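FW: tagging you since you asked about this chain on Friday. Here's the raw sequence from the shared folder, copied in full. Didn't touch anything.
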Amino acid sequence: MISPEIENRIVKFVSKSANAEDLHTLEEWILEPQNHSIFKEFVKTHFAITMSMSNPDSNEIRERLLKEIRKEKQSRFVHTLRSVLKYTAVIIFILGIGYFFGNEFINSASEVIVPKEEAITLQLENGNIKVIKEDGTTEVVDVNGNVVGTQEGTKLVYDKEAPIEKLVYNTLKVPHGKRFDVVLSDGTHVFLNAGTSIKYPIKFISSEKNRKVFLNGEAFFDVTKDEEHPFVVNAQALDVRVLGTKFNIATYEEDATSEVVLVEGSVTMNSEDIALKGESAILQPGFKGSYDKSEGTISTQKVNISLYTSWISGNVIFRNASFENITKKLERLYNVTIINNNEQLANESFNANIEVNNESIEQVLGYFNKVYQIEYTIVNNKIVIN
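HL: got it, structure written out here
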């Protein structure tokens, strides 16, 4: 059941009269799992009401919506609720409502942003580069012509029975604006985020002590258990060691920290400076380990893991993130260049959900333009925020 207080705040949100307290309360309410099954019919009702009124008045809409909400207390939640708060720099994006109000968020800039198109590539052991088409069904062969893997759409699957007797590596590179998967020869499934590269053996050799791969960027690992051969991810100056588990690693070169978030199982984090500083950490599920690249130190904290793993399904979540951090991720997600000349904006913090698969960069920028009156121009396909 929706309380009268929440009903009122929802109506204020839809009618664009919600204040900071309203949005904060709604955000906390939406994050509760038991509240994820209300709202679909309500949003549909609001859309029907506004379209059927020749001269819609916000007060009349508010009254009619209140009446409809009370009739639809058992309705299901639409994928997401979107909102923004101007002066406190709090953004609530909840997926889906843009379908109904999307036209209001389109930026008036006359020039269209055309994200750069780059190909996913696979570097073979002999140095040859193979372009991977996202809808392809090609085979991966070694230097002797043996088939060691096959492509299944957006996933590359390696054969554990391939006739390989020595350690030979491939390197898969996923450019900005794309995502891709690879299933290694031991069955480990790796989800690769935009701007990520991973170097891995085309077949793990049983005589090797570890199953080791090298990562630059962000990936989610679902590791096949093998107690005799620990799985090791080398993330620049950090080694993450596991037996069989699920975890996320973000280790972009330009970021000040490398972050490991554990979903299940157990992982050990070791920095290169461990001999000097003794820096290591064992994570438990629900915890994040952060490796400070400049200090060589590791810290841990309990987190909401969904904030760090939702990108796998195309939903990127920010919580108390700086605008600088958001623009950096937008560049990776959409393969665009963003130049921010607004120093005050750079220091603001935001909460936001962005559904990358269904929202264009113009729509995302449109939210900022409409609610924050942020001016931007497009110069040679670069987004310049003033």
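FW: The domain at 120-307 is CATH 2.60.120.1440 (Jelly Rolls).
HL: agreed, and The longest helix spans residues 58-71.
FW: great, closing this out.
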